Amino acid sequence: MGVRQGNAYGIFFDNTFRSNFQFGKFNDGFYSFGAPGGELNYYFINGPRPKRVVGTFAALTGRTPLPPLFTLGYQQCRWSYMSEARVREVTSGFRKRSIPADVIYLDIDYQDRNRPFTVNRQTFPTLEQMVKDLGQEGWKTVLITDLHIAAVPGYKPFDEGNKAGYFVKNPDGTNFVGPVWPGPSVFPDFTRSEVRKWWGSLYADFVKMGVRGFWNDMNEPSVFFRADKTMPLDVVSSVEGRKTDQREIHNVFGLENVHATYEGLLALAPDVRPFVLTRAAYAGAQRYAATWTGDNQATWNHMRLSLPTVTGLGVSGYAFVGVDVGGFSGSPTPELLTRWTALGTFLPIDRNHAAKGTRDREPWVDGPEHEAIRKKFIEERYRLLPYIYTSMEETSRTGVPLMRLMVLDYPDDPRMTGREAEGQYMFGNNLLVAPKVKEFVDGYDMLVPEGVWFDYWTGQRVALTNQDNPEMKGKLHLNPKLDEIPVFVRAGSIIPRQPLVQNTSEKPKGPLELRVYPGPKCMDYIYSDDGSSFGYKRGEYYRAQLSCESSGNSVKVAIAAGEGKYIPWWTSYNMVVADAPKAPASVAVGGQPVSNFHYDAKSKSVSVTVPFSQAPNEVVIQY
Ligand code: MIG
Question: Quick one: which H or E segment has residue 350?
């Protein structure tokens, strides 16, 4: 994607062979791209706005489907929780401390000798019961199921696949065998629909147990003891009968792997939104699986890289993305883990993960001070879920990612195309996040986009100081303390927040909060549905347009008529209007003056309770 003077274009080179892109290294007069095989298919996408380029690319390659709500909660992982007892200890550790969480992952060690679709009954004797019990405590279990199948007779996936000839082949027609976790392994030829169908059926037992998501790792495909760590180029696939090899297939191996998993899960449970996490992808894989940025390190540098990697995936059509919070290899310092946990609140997927041999990574491992801060940020994630879910629903229709490069929203600000903007991003349409990502700095500067901004945490208007200093023009100096992450709200937005829950299967108790920040272009939505089925495709959803208008000494906030057949969980709103110059002279709800409003002088806000109604409603505040 290129952006020049606010105008953007995109080029998608749709070729699965080993592609190369030349961005001015040898000659800065032109860019070039190419591949040693395949067809010369490429698309030129005219924006002219960057958001349009991203949206068009998503329309072409497929949009991220609306994820199940629980996947937007906090996710806890580790390579590996080694036993049922340890899993129960960790999950009850969250509940005991009232730290909200939704997902627990089992990495490769729950399996028998690392063989996919098996269970180590020594360490997980009652996995079925465990999944059930955890389900009752509001946990969703996600299992890793890699694609390498142990090449041993007597192991069901091997026997079935071998008999049917489902594995990729050497040029001489024998099975290609390569070493991975289970030892010598074979690999399903996912480019064949018959094989995908068979692969999908392997999930039946786990789905029946109530396992709610699956992790397809190692699907580059990863093969040990080779310099390139993957399959030789001459390994043969048979794309619906057409023979070709890894030269063409390597880059889509992961895509076809998760294609098979996703469709298999749909076949097993047609009205449940699948959750699949993939490590390898090609353009379009976002239709089937979420992804993460792979094995990062527990360093400040890699926390910093969370931003350009996730926003980069976002403009590449990949909106549902996480990074290993805390860093995969190595052990984070307490401060790094705390800062990263705060950042996790504002990532599309909030998943804490760690490599084998590293120190424990659950929020409480560094003593009460760090625990309290981490808890506060995980709680904020849960409070903000209505905003996050509404934004993901928008993403599923527009292709514009939840976590996005500044240039998507501010293409006319030339600063936003540069490296200088790399440390900040938009989270949905209205929040700007600028975390501390460098360790030994005495603060850093954020680029403030046009318009008025509010501090998300205090509700106060942001005042730019030092504006006579040309170095600081349009910038804000930040130096967040350990328990802070700078987040700002665009004037002209309405942010929905909910009462705290411990997991997403708990129904929030109390009103839906609508935080109104008066300003221009004030038009948002609130979206809700059952969070897990495809009912929303049959009209079982709730969507209402929210808008605000301010003129002179009044602010009007409108909630339009609800759309869809779903009745959301809230029965009233707690509307909190920021930027109040003084106590209001009057407040009217639906045309009727009310007296139950509250003016808070400290945060300069007015709050008022508004009943939920399917009909349009409005609040008018006169100062
Ligand atoms: O060879 O399953 O990126 O997240 O914990 C390592 C074990 C295999 C790599 C993944 C990582 C996962 C690990 N896997």
Answer: strand 349-352
Phi, psi of 31 (to 5 degrees): -105, 155
> HEC profile for 547-593?
EEEEECCEEEEEECCCECCCCCCCCEEEEEECCCCCCCCEEEECCEE
CB 117 within 8 A of CB 157: yes
Q: Residue 5's pLDDT band (boundaries 50, 70, 90)?
A: confident
Domain holding 509: CATH number? 2.60.40.1180
Report how far ligand 1's centroid is from the alpha carbon of 13 (Å). 30
**What is the number of the ligand 1 atom nearest to the C-alpha of 328?**
4
Instruction: State both tokens at 290.
Output: 């979420």
Domain count of the fold of the chain? 1
pLDDT at 501 over 90: yes
Ligand 1 centroid from CA 321, angstroms: 16
Distance CA(520)–CA(436), nearest Å, equals: 29
Ligand 1 pocket test: which of 76, 77, 79 has the largest number of ligand atoms within 8 Å of its C-beta?
79
The 10 Å Cβ neighbour count of residue 15 is 19
Domain with 558, as residue range(s), is 493-622
Whether residue 256 is contained in a domain is answered as no
| Ligand 1 midpoint to CA 318 (Å) | 21
Exposure pattern of 61-75 as b/e (b: 16+ CB <10 Å)?
bbbbbbbbbbbbbbb
Residues with CB under 6 A from ligand 1: 79, 107-108, 144, 217-218, 279, 294-295, 353
Residue 23 has pLDDT above 90, yes or no: no
CB of 402 within 8 A of CB of 388?
yes
- Any domain includes 432: no
SS3 239: strand
Task: State pLDDT tens for residues 240-256.
Answer: 999 999 999 999 999 99
Which residues are catalytic, by number? 217, 220, 295
Residue pair 460/604 in contact (Cβ under 8 Å)? The answer is yes
Q: Are 428 and 387 in contact (CB under 8 A)?
A: yes
The number of the ligand 1 atom at minimal distance from the alpha carbon of 324 is 4
Give 254 Cα–ligand 1 centroid separation in angstroms: 15
Q: Tell me whether residue 448 is in a domain.
A: no
Closest ligand 1 atom to 356 CA:
5
H-helix or E-strand containing 195?
helix 193-201
Q: pLDDT tens for residues 331-347?
A: 999 999 999 999 999 99
Between the alpha carbon of residue 503 and those of residues 3, 173, 485, the distances in Å are: 41, 51, 23
Separation of alpha carbons 357 and 78, rounded Å: 10
Do residues 362 and 332 lie in contact, with contact meaning Cβ atoms separated by under 8 Å?
no
Q: Taken in order 259, 261, 262, 266, is the CA torsion positive or negative?
A: positive
Fill in the DSSP letter of residue 329.
B
Query: Considering the domain boundaries, does residue 340 fall inside one?
Result: no
